[in-house]
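Aim 2 progress update. The chain analyzed this quarter is reproduced below.
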Amino acid sequence: MPTKKNIVIFFSAVIIIAVAIGYYFYNKGPVNVKNATAIKTEAVTLYQSFLKDSATAKKTYLNNVLEVSGLVMKVSKNQEDQVIVMLQTNESGAYINCTMEKDAAVVPENKQATLKGICTGMGMGDADLGIMGDVYLVRCYLVM
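Predicted C-alpha cells:
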C-alpha cells in the first residue's frame, strides 16, 4: 500500500511537469513564416484539393505554412489596411486569398507570383447566390 508521502510526491511531480509544459507552450511564440519549411503547391491544385475533399485538404494544409504559386488577379486592401492578394484558380469567382504582412514586398497584378503563408482553410461561399468560397492564407510574404 503506497504511503501518503509517496502519493504527495507523485502528484507534486505531475503538477510540476504540467506547469513546465504549459510554460513552454506559452512562451513558444508564433511561427516564423519567412524561415519555416513550407508545403509547395500551385493555386489551382490547392483550390481543387479543398473543393474535391475538404476533410483531406484540411488535414494536409490547415494551419501549415504553404508556398503557393499562381497568377495574381487582384491586389487590394481590407478594412484593417492590410494588403490582400488574390491568386487565380480554375473556378470562376474563386481565389486563393492571401493577407500580406505589413513589411511584405509589393506584388504586381497579372504576373506570376509565389506567396508563402499559413493556410486557415476555405470560406463557405454561398451556393444560392453562386458565390464560390476562397481558400485563405494569412501572414503572407512574397517569395523571391
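The mean pLDDT is 92. Strands lie at 39-42, 65-77, 83-88, 95-100, 112-122, 135-142. These observations will guide the mutagenesis experiments scheduled for the next reporting period.
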